[in-house]
From TrEMBL:
Keywords: Hydrolase. Gene3D superfamilies: Glycosidases (3.20.20.80). InterPro entries: GH, GH_1_N_CS, Glyco_hydro_1. The keyword Hydrolase applies. This is Glycoside hydrolase family 1 protein. The keyword Isomerase does not apply.
Length: 488
């Protein structure tokens, strides 16, 4: 049938994150972040790769923005490294760090590219981790707010779109449950406590934003995966509901409605792992509402009911011990019987209808339409897809070209579903593909490539880091030029 066009000012964009592209890890006064330290722990990342140099965007941002301009990009989403602005996490401001982002923003604006600025993409300053355990302390709320206010003050007239926290669900789970990200902890109770503190930091910062950037728009970027039931058995459907509540609504309800979902909270409370709510917390959460929802979409999850009984607290230790993730991003236990307390209410299984990438991520374009539909009706906010893309091995051919037809196919299939979602009635303001250039995959090194622009390198930064547009770069340029009108 007939499809609505993409809106006239649709933000066709691309995204990145500071640690994954910048390099210059200690340049011009920058302090260390938890990632600068964590990647040096043997065995934690693919072949010990780190972001010390990354793709050296810190020194080559002009070249990168020139490539964005040439492509016709309408928006560029990037994150600010907190420890560039405040090397100690709080206190003394590093002007050189602020100037770097100001230069980048000015360069974008000079080329009519809308900056979308992420405040936190996983890199809390190591100084704050050392001082008070980072997000496990309520002091982090004020320190984060101070950091955000510095950026609001400086860039309020230049940056309209702001993202508060990137994938809070992902970095708390990987950092505090799976021991796969810093701070390298495996303790669900601590995870839920830290997560609550981050919710408060998010709310407080949105309040500051209202005061300092009255004409801007702010929202979190949530890593959303719609949960599917394995089949129509009511037990499995109930498990999918549990999955949706524990992996999605648990965060989104707080962002948008300022309160934890009641049933979910009760279950965690029963298990002794619900966060500690202090006087004033609920009022703060309710006083801050985002202007839009950022949605990072890669894949959903398929679940069935677990055969093991709802665990009692005494089991917790034993269950934790057995637990090992295959790919921590999939949050799927190797031994499906080994569960942490609340995830035992559903068990992840592969979806027999879907193919996967080389890293086992399901490829599910229809899922992005399902995701946006569910989110529109439950939360009723405008949305921006702030990430979506394919990690793949790319081959640089002898003639220096990269034929990434598989990436074109992946992106095209997803963008067509966006158009259907818009036709359905979803209010979508933009789409930022992940990523603009190739970059460091946190745990998978430089061989897992996502970019429109190839970075000529090996795992050890021993090449020139030359930029080479891939075939998908020219494909996206055309999509932007025609505002997606050829996609159906
Ligand atoms: C990876 C991941 C990341 C994330 C992004 C989340 O391979 O490391 O895919 O690149 O997508 O950082 O916001």
């Amino acid at each position: 049938g007939h499809l609505d066009p993409f809106p006239k000012n649709f933000l066709w964009g691309a995204a990145s994150a500071a640690y994954q592209i910048e390099g210059g890890w200690n340049a011009e006064g920058k302090g260390a972040s938890i990632w600068d330290q964590f990647t040096k722990i043997p065995g934690k990342t693919f072949e010990g790769t780190n972001g010390d140099v990354a793709v050296d965007h810190y020194h080559r941002y002009k070249e990168d923005v020139a490539l964005m301009a040439e492509m016709g990009l309408k928006a560029y989403r990037f994150s600010v490294a907190w420890s560039r602005i405040l090397p100690e996490g709080a206190g003394e401001v590093n002007e050189a760090g602020l100037q770097f982002y100001e230069n980048l923003i000015d360069e974008l604006l000079a080329h009519h590219i809308e900056p979308v600025l992420t405040l936190y993409h996983w890199d809390i300053p190591q100084a704050l981790q050392d001082k008070y355990n980072g997000w496990e302390s309520r002091q982090a709320i004020d320190d984060f707010d101070q950091y955000a206010r510095i950026l609001f003050d400086r860039f309020k007239d230049k940056v309209k779109y702001w993202v508060s926290f990137n994938e809070q669900n992902v970095f708390t789970a990987l950092g505090y449950r799976w021991q796969a990200h810093p701070p390298n902890v495996s303790d669900v109770k601590r995870m839920f406590e830290a997560n609550h503190i981050i919710n408060l930091a998010n709310a407080k910062t949105i309040q500051s934003f209202r005061e300092l950037v009255p004409n801007g728009q702010i929202g979190p970027s949530f890593g959303y995966g719609p949960m599917y039931s394995f089949d129509c058995s009511p037990d499995n459907v109930l498990a999918a509901l549990n999955g949706e509540e524990f992996q999605n609504h648990w965060w989104l309800d707080v962002y948008v409605h300022g309160k934890y979902p009641k049933v979910t909270f009760k279950q965690l409370d029963r298990l002794g792992i619900a966060p500690t709510i202090e006087a004033g917390d609920n009022a703060l959460l309710q006083a801050a509402k985002p202007d839009f929802l950022g949605v990072n979409y890669y894949h959903g999850g398929t679940v069935r009911a677990n055969e093991i009984e709802f665990p009692i607290q005494e089991n917790e230790q034993e269950l934790e011990k057995d637990f090992q993730a295959t790919d921590p991003y999939l949050m799927k236990p190797k031994d499906e019987q080994a569960q942490t307390p609340e995830t035992s209410m559903f068990t992840s299984v592969s979806n027999p209808h879907l193919e996967t990438t080389k890293w086992g991520w399901e490829i599910d374009p229809v899922g992005i339409r399902i995701a946006l539909r569910r989110l529109q009706n439950r939360y009723d906010l405008p949305m921006m897809v702030t990430e979506n893309g394919l990690g793949a091995y790319d081959e640089l051919k002898a003639d220096k070209t990269i034929d990434d037809d598989y990436r074109i196919q992946y992106l095209k299939d997803h963008v067509v579903e966006l158009r259907k979602a818009i036709t359905d009635g979803v209010e979508l303001i933009g789409y930022c593909a992940w990523s603009f250039t190739d970059l460091l995959s946190w745990l998978n090194g430089y061989q897992k490539r996502y970019g429109f622009v190839y970075i000529d390198r090996d795992e050890k930064d021993e090449k020139e880091l030359g930029r080479i547009p891939k075939k998908s770069y020219y494909w996206y340029k055309d999509v932007i030029e025609t505002n997606g009108s050829d996609l159906k």
